[in-house]
Amino acid sequence: MMGLGGATIAAFGLAAIAGVFAPFFLGVVLTICVHPLRVLLEKHGVSRGIATGAVIVTVIGLLLALGYAMLVAFGQFGALLAEFSDQIAAFGQDVAAWLASIGVASGEVADLSANFDPSTVVGFVGGLIGGITGLTSLLVIVFTMLLLMGMDAAFVPTLLKQLYPARPLVVASLVTYGANVRRYMVATTVLGLAQGVVDWIALVIIGVPGAFIWGLLAFVCSFIPNVGYFLALIPPIIFAALVGGWPMVVIVIVVYAVINGVIQSVIQPRVIGKAVNLSQTITFFSVLFWAVVIGPIGAILAIPLTLLVRLILVDSNPQMSWIRPLLGELDETKEAMARFDADAKAERMSRNIVKPNGVPADTPPGPTPREARAISPEASRSAHQ
302-310 and 168-206 are packed helices; what angle lies between their axes, rounded to 10 degrees? Predict the structure, then answer.
């Protein structure tokens, strides 16, 4: 109960400072991801100052490129809504009529369809684009943290060596955490970029409006486990229904299922490996939990945040090693399940084996002919005579 109470207080505390904690942790994750670049430059004789500057410039360049792409996507989205406002309004009325036909709060649905105006969505997008300057404080925090942590990261290897004699398990856990977060984020970024580009090209070929927007959305949603696929699929389905009807909707669903299924279900697990030893249930819950605590960016950073909690509570505490299988480290559990399945299969086969005379193998043997004659009534009377 004390542990749950402390976790609850910590969650409310993080929610209270989400505006500061979210960009801070984003800076930490980005610094971890680009740390190998520093190591590579220093191995080739580049000074630490130049290596630090190169790392900072690289991260800021990537953030600026992503921000520019999002601005372009927002602009195209506003134009797209203005172009399809009538179709969207008609589509909303059709959906409302279908909901009313199955008895889903017909009065509220009718009011919603009557008051729905796509121009309000256009105005919202325009206000969002115009309010980008309101994110200045967020960008200042991220860039400042990148600058400071980029300079401090030069001392981290030496600090870990100094700390290792006193806290070897903590150092090992920190190193493992950095390696796992780096592998997960870099692999997800590369595969998400490939996924977004392929989705973009496929939507252009199919003829879905706003293909660039939905490709960028697929890239961003690739960082959201389990849920991101469905979030990225909904908008292209809607616009495919507007321009092509159900046939185009089916094509979009099939294309997304193939592309995302191959990348996220086949390629990504092989690339990431054991970097994220979390069960599917905990992964899904972590997305919901961190999205509630620190906002939408929490869904994107759910895996690094959950791995951080695991580092603090489990990996650096030898008394909590028993809980690892419950979190998702199932190597020993899978081996035990394989042995149990093999034993159960062998037992079933032994019960199903039949002797040549048709008697099951586990049937106890009957008396021999001599024993049968010995215990028969005739044999008993003749023996008595």
Answer: 160
